[in-house]
Amino acid sequence: MPGQKILCVAEKPAIAKAVAQHLAGGQLATHSIRGNPYVKNYQFTYNFPIWGNCEVVMTSVLGHLTGLDFDTKYKKWMSCPPGQLFECETVETIDVDKKPVAENITQQARHSQILFIWTDCDREGEHIGMEVRTQALKGNSRITVKRARFSNTEKTTLCRRPEILSISMNVKPML
User: Fold this and answer.
1) What digits encode the pLDDT tens for the residues 16-73?
2) b/e string for 39-53 if b means 16 or more Cβ within 10 A?
3) Which run of H or E residues covers position 5?
4) Is residue 174 part of a domain?
5) Does a structural domain hold residue 121?
6) Is residue 159 part of a domain?
7) Of 10-14, 86-90, 106-110, 114-118, which gets the smallest average pLDDT?
8) How far apart are the C-alpha atoms of 108 and 123, rounded to whole Å?
9) Which of 6, 44, 48, 175 fits a disulfide with 24 by CB distance 3.0 to 4.6 angstroms?
10) Structural domain harbouring 15
């Protein structure tokens, strides 16, 4: 009987699918999310070395969830001198086409104890991980956040070396 529920979020749909298939050993259920034909939720059970036998939902984002823009008063070409844009505040928004993806993460996090982020180990991946973390915390403010460190999604790497799955770090913004 599975214990904790873990939400895994990858940076791209192809990575989510590959990791889910390898960890699940082919025993998984696939569900489409409403509003986006590319992102799927893969459900399976996996015995993590540090958490034991767990229910897992593996899903993904499509790169960045958010974008930065200027306040609406600066949106017209002639609204201000161009130099003023260097000093004005920006507004972070969820891109319209990414809202279903963000809502999926928030919804799945409501029922999960752990968020396991599977993004690239570079600055962009760290930033995307922060965006995923922010969305998950909207659904569950007490969710534990962990970070997968992996170099490829080959089955031999993911399944023969499970210690890779147990390595985690705090997700933090890198500027």
Assistant:
1) 999 999 889 889 999 999 999 999 999 999 988 878 899 999 999 999 999 888 888 7
2) bbbbbbbbebeebee
3) strand 5-10
4) no
5) yes
6) yes
7) 86-90
8) 25
9) 44
10) 5-63+100-166
What is the number of domains present in the chain? 1
pTM of the model: 0.84
Model confidence at 74: pLDDT above 90: no
What is the largest distance, in Å, between two alpha-carbon atoms of the chain?
63
Size of the chain in residues: 175
Are the beta carbons of 64 and 131 closer than 8 angstroms? yes
> b or e along 23-32 (b: 16 or more beta carbons within 10 Å of the residue's beta carbon)?
bbeeebeeee
Distance CA 22, CA 46 (A): 10
User: Domain of 106: which CATH number?
Assistant: 3.40.50.140
Domain annotation covers residue 144: yes
Q: Rounded to a whole number, what is the distance in angstroms from the first to the last CA of the chain? A: 43
pLDDT score for 154: 67
